[in-house]
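Hey,

Quick one before I head out. I ran the complex with adenosine monophosphate overnight. Inputs first:
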Amino acid sequence: MQTITRIAELRATVTRWRLARESIAFVPTMGNLHMGHASLMSAAHLHGRRVISSIFVNPMQFGPSDDFSAYPRTPDDDSSLLGEYGVDALFHPTVEEMYPSGSVGSTVVDVPGLTDILCGVFRPGHFQGVATVVVKLLCLVQPDVAIFGEKDFQQLTVIRRVVDDLNLPVKIVGAPTVRAEDGLALSSRNRYLSAAERAAAPAMYRALDAARRRLEAGDMDYAGMQAEGLAALAQAGFRPEYFEVRTADRLAVPTENDVRVVVLAAGRIGKARLIDNIQCAAPRRG
Ligand code: AMP
């Protein structure tokens, strides 16, 4: 696997692939890779002759009280995993390479509406930072396909919207969430959990699954489900942020005609902020 830190080398590599008419699938990450990321690399091979990943902990998407400096960085393990998964190239730039004039005051990509709900309420500016870095990375790599995890459902929704609105020539593919056996979604932030917190954390998945069952049975008492979900999170030791039923396409409050819905939750436990979601098909009632 070729490891690339400079934009000029990235452009040269991508140009070589393009001239050879090789399709390119791209998987952006922040590193500290686990089997969730690995599943994205496997998915990428189905979509591109060449697979390229990036590792970049993007300061623009972290707020002042977020974990930017503490975010786990494990470059050697990450390189081994990417090598094992047959990734052709890793783009691993410095902050200075990505933001030569600094990340404050530079051009940003703003997605009104979608970015100030759910996680956006608790992490102001987060999705603007995500949208900006993803557009920069897509411009640099120019992939045919880019793969994102459904684990970060709001992020995936924001990116689909950006790509639509800006007519970016890339296909966005969502990949299913990889979970531990007890249901906990794999996340780099799980390593912040103590043993007791790790044992309590799957309560988030169980609460989402309980709401899914109610929705699939035709229940439309969203307020009741949301209250039940928040209570289950608090009971397990979370400091809940939200537990919401939304439409799967635009993250709007569902009406009786909406069939594809998603239940999303976020909460803090110990030092970790965890998010998760489950999609489901509610029976049509309208
Ligand atoms: P991150 O490194 O956390 O920014 O994640 C990089 C990509 O991996 C994003 O598209 C995430 O949605 C995806 N991802 C993270 N955790 C999982 C998981 N448990 N299952 C599937 N995809 C994941």
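The longest helix spans residues 126-141.

Talk tomorrow,
K.
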